[in-house]
Structures are given as C-alpha cells and as structure tokens.
Specification:
alpha+beta; two-stranded antiparallel sheet; four-stranded antiparallel beta sheet; Pdz3 Domain; single chain
Length: about 350
C-alpha cells in the first residue's frame, strides 16, 4: 500500500501545480494576454504540443511549473503583452494561481464533509451543576473569539483557554448578536463526583445542513490558514528550525506515512485528502508572501511600481523587476535544494 500512497501523493502534487498554473493561464487568456507556454514540471521538455499561439509541455522534473506570458519580465511593444495590461488585469492574473489552490483546498474539504450527519460546534449545550460560569455564559452561546483569536472549531476553545492565563476577553454570539465578557476570570475546576478538572460545560452537535456544512468548510479553511501563519511565526521567532521544514520529498513521505498509520483504507484516504486540502491552502498562502519570484513578490513589486509611476509620471522598465525575480528564483531554488537534501537525509535516517 505504501507505493499506492506515494503515487497518490505524486498525483496530488501534479494536480496542485496544474490547478495553480491553470489559474494563471485561464486569467491571462480571459484578460487577453498572449501565453507563450504552459508547462507542468521543470527542466527539459518530455512532451511538447503547439496549439494556436501557446505551447503546452510536460517537463522531466516533476516539481513546479510555469505559465510564460509575453512581456512578463521585459518591455514589449505587443499590445497583448503582460506588461501592456492595466494594473488591475495584472493583479488578477498574478493572484489567480493562489486563489485556485485555495478554492481547490475548499473543494476537497467540501467533498470530505459531504457525508457528514452532524458537526461538533463551539456552542454551549449544557452546564454541570454548580458551574460558576452559568449566568455570564448561557446555553446556546457560540464562542466567537478568545483574547482576539477567532474560534473556528470546537477544539480552538481549549487551545486558547489552556495557555496558562486565567483571565480572558471572551466574545460569544448570543441570539444573533456579539456579547463580550472583558477580563473574565475562567479556569478549570473540579466538580463533585468527577476526577478531572474542567470548565463545567459541554459542547453539542449541529445537524449537518447545507448551510452548516458550508460554514464548517470555510472555518476549516480559515483554520488551515492560521496554522500556516503560526508556523511561519514560529520559524521567524526561531522556535522552529529550517531543518524541520519539509519540501516535496518530505511531504510525499508524510502522506505515505499518514496512509500507512490509518486503521482502515477509508480512513487512510480521508486523512490523505484532508492533508491534501491543507497542502493546497498552505501553497495558496505561501505563494502570496511578498518574496521575489513568488506571486506575492510580483504583486508587491507591481503595486510599488504602479505607485512610483503614478507619482513620477514615468513608466519603469520591467527588466529591472525581472532581475529582482531572477535573483529571487535562484535563491528560492537553492533553498528548495537545501530542503530536499534534508528530506532525503531524514528518509535515510529512519
């Protein structure tokens, strides 16, 4: 089964790349930009086919891909060149790849949640006897945020309450309105007849109506975004080493391991595609970081260039932006090679 899970992981990566580059490609075509080549993979081409003005290719290294547009990093007199388009069109084209990855992640979650009959929700269903929080809090209250952190899923409540603090700013949704408890003292207590401390109330289930499913798909997607940002914050703070990061090799191994550890084949596929949804949304968020060579870096420089041109009334030469992205691509590829080398060492170290 390990080989099957590896094949699924490789196929998943291919789909993610195709969807991402397909987003750029579709947006470019709709905006009237000339697309010279649409490629899946990097390196020399294995298969090439010319259709109209665009070359479609599959390349030998199954990592990455690209949508090459006319005038993307250089001046061009072609009215259909990327740099000849207004800023709003270029923004749409640049954002389209990450947007499609994000939507793919949501679609996978929606498919996984489709058979669900009910969801545990962060809504108070009942209090235990003598709970001191019964009054300020009420049955039916939906936790909205704790200390400024949004509560997307029921388990977020424990994550943000069990942080060593005993006083919290809590916002709940009550009768359709937000109700705030500022500097509210709240901690786990030991209740009569019980052996473990707890807050003294329990969460209930919501019937999985179409609206509830949509809300849970959205909340799970937002939860994934928060995990990505939290991971980046831990990396910047030095709490996580760069060596702990994983690239394509490490992620494929993680997916295969997830499948092997599942109790059944159905559980394996559920866990793999749940992880796949996270990876899709992870790629969407990471790609929009303002780093040269990434889509976010291109968006950032596009906005900066547009601002400079608006002030100076002079059009900047796109080749300088091209130099920045070329340098960023070299550094990015070097970083990816470093991560891949670490992933291979981890595999041999198992």
């Amino acid at each position: 089964m390990t080989v099957l899970y590896i094949l699924i992981a490789v196929l998943l990566f291919g789909v993610l790349i195709f969807v991402h580059e397909g987003g750029h490609f579709t947006a470019a075509k709709l905006c009237g930009v000339r697309v010279n080549e649409f490629a899946i993979g990097m390196g020399p081409a294995i298969v090439k086919k010319q259709r109209g003005e665009t070359t479609y290719s599959i390349r030998c290294v199954p990592i990455g891909g690209f949508c090459s547009m006319a005038g993307e990093d250089e001046s061009s007199d072609d009215p259909r060149a990327f740099t000849s388009q207004p800023v709003w069109k270029r923004l749409i084209i640049l954002i389209a790849g990450s947007l499609m990855n994000f939507l793919l992640g949501m679609l996978i979650i929606a498919v996984l949640y489709a058979p669900a009959k009910a969801f545990i929700s962060p809504v108070i269903a009942e209090f235990v006897r003598d709970c001191p929080y019964n009054g300020p809090l009420q049955v039916g209250d939906r936790f909205y945020s704790i200390d400024g952190h949004r509560i997307y899923q029921y388990y977020d409540f424990s994550d943000y309450m069990d942080n060593g603090e005993t006083v919290h700013d809590i916002v709940v949704i009550r009768d359709g309105h937000r109700f705030t408890l500022s500097d509210f003292p709240m901690e786990k207590l030991l209740y009569e007849g019980e052996t473990q401390k707890r807050y003294g109330f329990s969460f209930g289930y919501e019937e999985a109506t179409f609206t509830v499913k949509l809300r849970n798909v959205w909340n799970t997607s937002m939860e994934f975004c928060r995990w990505v940002w939290s991971g980046l914050a831990e990396l910047v703070k030095g709490h996580v080493s760069v060596k702990e990061m994983s690239g394509p090799v490490g992620i494929v191994d993680m997916i295969a391991e997830t499948g092997e550890q599942a109790e059944s084949t159905s559980d394996a596929f559920y866990s793999i595609f749940y992880l796949g949804a996270f990876i899709a949304i992870n790629l969407a968020v990471m790609n929009m970081l303002p780093i040269p060579a990434l889509d976010g870096g291109r968006v950032f420089l596009l906005l900066v260039s547009a601002l400079i041109e608006a002030v100076s009334r002079k059009k900047l030469d796109p080749k300088y932006e091209g130099y920045i992205h070329a340098a960023g691509m070299v550094l990015l590829l070097a970083f990816m090679a470093f991560i891949m080398f670490n992933d291979i060492l981890k595999l041999f170290g198992k």
